Structures are given as structure tokens and as C-alpha cells.
Amino acid sequence: MDDGPSPPSVFPEPDLKGRVTLQRALHRRRSIREFEGSPISLAELGQLAWAAQGVTDPAGYRTAPSAGALYPLELYLLTGASEELGAGTYHYLPSRHGLERLAKGDLRSRFAAAALAQEWTARAAVIIVVAAAYARTTRKYGERGRRYVAIEAGHCVQNVYLQATAQGLGATEVGAFRDAAVSRLIGLPGDQQPVTSIVVGRPMSGRPT
Q: Which of 103, 118, 124, 186 is the most buried (most CB within 10 A)?
């Protein structure tokens, strides 16, 4: 297992201006599966996490809409090593805009195996697994709440796609994986289930983003 540096408790502040318009990001967005394999910076990683589930209001509201503002989604990041972050499995903490490290070591290849042998995913800089604690929503909305969670996950993923595009990164959603294997890999709590994932990295030279 990796003995890299402990993660910082807080990411750099998210960039609220950027240099790419929403319209440009929408126009340029493509699913990218060919990556250079190089790491991304801590600021880039934090920007992706913020776009997915960042807090944008003192009342706790986030970047992605949530039925009843119940926020059932949790983000888990599988990374390789970089100068700023050790290889490991991390849990995003929206209220702190920071990380907690759950485990050391690069698990991207094991995720690729759990994702039905999609080996290209292991070359991404980060694999973001979106998990859901369904009960947070179904307690209020009953079984209909499961649909609301799926809708919310779609909002979350599209935010990541657009943010990645704006940063010059490539991203692809991966929904084909063995749920139990991914849950074990991350060590998900019993009340959470993996819903989908997004793999993000630097696209091979010449690939559109």
C-alpha cells in the first residue's frame, strides 16, 4: 500500500469565474476514454468535487439540485499518486470542501476489473464513484424517492462533465460495474450503494474535450 502524504483537510477555494462559458462547455463536451495517464492538480480535483456536490449557500444548498434538499449522494475518489496527494481512496466532505482518506494505495486497476474489465478506466487521473444513501430520500418520498435519487445523480454527473470540459480535462460516465465489488473496494457503509461513476483525466493529445 502507498505511504504517500496525508491529504489536506481542505481543497483550495473553488474558482467561481473560470475562462470557459457554459455555452462553450456544452458545445465542447464529449465522452473521453483515452487519457495521458498523468495526475491532475489538487485544485483541479477540488473543482471537480465542488461541481459535483459543493456547497454554494450558507443554508447548505449544493451545486446539484436535490429533492427536498435531502442530499443522499456521497462522492468517493480513487486516485493515483501525485506531488500533492497520495494514491488512495478518499471521501469528499462538502461542508468542508475537503477530503478524508479512507485507504492508501492505488485501486484504479481493481475498479477497472469491477467495471467489467474496462481497462481504460485505470488510466484516468481520478475515478469518482457516486454512491447514494437512498433512505435519506425515501423516508420522505417513499419508493418514488429512488427515482429522485437517480435524477439527482444525473445532475451531479453532468456537472462533472461540464466542469471537466471547462478545465480542459476529459470525462466519461461509467455505469457498468459490479455493485457488490465496488462497494467492497471502497468499503461503503451498509446504508449506501454505488449508483454510477465518472472517470476523469487529461485527454490524449489531439483529442477534443
A: 124
